[in-house]
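Researcher: Batch entry, complex prediction.
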Amino acid sequence: MKYIEKLRNSGLRPTKQRLQICEVLFDADKTFHFTINELEKKIKKQINSKISLATVYNTIHAFEKKGYLKQIPINSNQTYFDTNVSDHHHFYDLNDEKLIDLENCDVGPINILKKINGKKIKSVEVLVKLED
Amino acid sequence: MKYIEKLRNSGLRPTKQRLQICEVLFDADKTFHFTINELEKKIKKQINSKISLATVYNTIHAFEKKGYLKQIPINSNQTYFDTNVSDHHHFYDLNDEKLIDLENCDVGPINILKKINGKKIKSVEVLVKLED
DNA sequence: TAACTACTTTATAATGATTCTAAAAAAGTG
DNA sequence: CACTTTTTTAGAATCATTATAAAGTAGTTA
Ligand SMILES: [Mn+2]
Ligand SMILES: [Mn+2]
Ligand SMILES: [Zn+2]
Ligand SMILES: [Zn+2]
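Model: Structure tokens for the complex:
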């Protein structure tokens, strides 16, 4: 019930599928990173019903547009998303192929000295690659 | 002729195709960013011969493995490469969908305060997204 | 509730970047 | 020139993602 308002306020109808996806994404103890494929498995396990893959894609993109999810840029054939939408950075473990959060305080302040005429900074993201 | 040694020293046979791709990539006045698709067009225009798409992929990946190219992580359906292999960061212009180099000196020093046990830092990359 | 409209879900097909395959060609070696 | 190994190539396969279009659902108004 707790996500109905949230969806309505975003102009998204609170459908059964969207509410189920909300549960999986936002009722977790901790925030987490995922690909669509991983999320699909998680949904199947947690909720005991099938949601069409197209709906999962649609919903994730809708949630991203509304700012409830972030897309994490790493070189992968699959897109990674993050339920942690706070301003933060990432470790990427090249061996385990896993993302790890770096809170903003874990990285010293970042100073972008160069300016581009007529453009403004929307975000600053740091990706730290790790290896054994 | 000037790339024959470079390729041999890397254990890559200096074939006609590899030498032509070297010319396009490394004889340019400035370093540049590209996707495989963009590179294919560039090759067709500059060199007047066709190189199989599979060969372009093979060669680019071979060059990347040898450290002659860098892969740039941005969220795109296509992989971006960089002929500038120096340690540097990027602006990504969301409107023009173009990468712009940020030399290391354009960004203050970055301090990663968090450590992960048994892992060492391989690289630190900053992506600054720009909008109008 | 019924009727109506707009939005959503779904199975399935299409797309498109990338990788694979296996045969022909080229390079290196002696 | 043989002979081996690597490379190129066209075309097929893969697979994440997006498009399609028909059926279902939500919201609204009577
Ligand atoms: Mn997307
Ligand atoms: Mn690659
Ligand atoms: Zn994160
Ligand atoms: Zn660059």
